[in-house]
Amino acid sequence: MKRLQTIMLFLILVSALGAQTTNKYDLLTEPYINRPYTLHQGLLQFNGSYSHILSNNYFDGDGNKLDFNEVVSSVIEDAYYIKFGYGILELLELNGEINMRNRFETLPTYFVSNNMNFGSENTLYHYKGLGFLQLELKARTPVFLSGFETFLSGGVTIPAGSGHPSQPDHAITIYNPADPGGSYELDYNFNPSPASPATFFHVSLGGRYSNNKVGISVNGTYTSPFKEVETYYWKYRLYGYDFQYSTSHYTIRPKGNIHAGILFDLQLFPWFATYTGYNFDHETPGWSDQTGQPVGLTTSSSGTALVGFEIQVSTHFRMIQQVYLPVTGKNRYSEFQILTGLTYTIAPVLKSSE
What is the pTM of this model? Predict the structure, then answer.
């Protein structure tokens, strides 16, 4: 942490030495459509956002939507994101992000009936805690050809928490212990990690054309783990009315991801912009030897439509609202997402011309 603070202080000092006299107000209130890919030199930005996800369908391996009850009873997720960005130079930005997730995946209840007893078995996967920590450097070209610019960025992502699953909280309820033929209820409560145990790198690039009213941009990102890592899963066994647990270690190379997106922007007022777009994500292969032999992990893909807007609330604050609508997919939940964010921007080292 001290090393990171030292690096940040050094970058701010470098930026301060090279800062030019400018109008802070113009930079802080620059319309969405006119803002470049990177923060202007000397600008420091913080963003906090909240995301809520609901799932009502599942895309199978052929891309067909399955009824919810066939695969899962419910998927609900609440996530919180904190981001920062700093304009080191006019064409170079350092940014970072950390998140926290609270996700519930509930499988359909399984009923067991025989001559001796009747029971029900419930399964819950609860992802809770810190997710990932990401650091990135982004460089852009100067705006040229009447509003066209490009960017190139790269960074690393590490688990902010342990990256490994916590011990399950299984439980059994016997409704009439004196009756050997009585009913029971089994609750399997798994606690996977909200983050992968591996460290990832990513490379992104994109381009945009815009004028004072409309814009169009495209972008792509390739994400991959540096290498395979060792983790573990929890084994369990029921003894009487109590569960006993132990861990078993294995090696995994997590799946990577290829992302492509297109976005259309419209600046309706200097303080209000709206946009719509489409994102496509496809996982790259990974493997695990959890079964004793290396086995490929099932990959998935998704196509998602995006609509959103941004409002300049004051000189330093902007509000962001986005809605993501699932369109296509394979081996993935069909997730509807709403994201609300607030951005705070300051210019701590800029010299104002005012």
Answer: 0.88
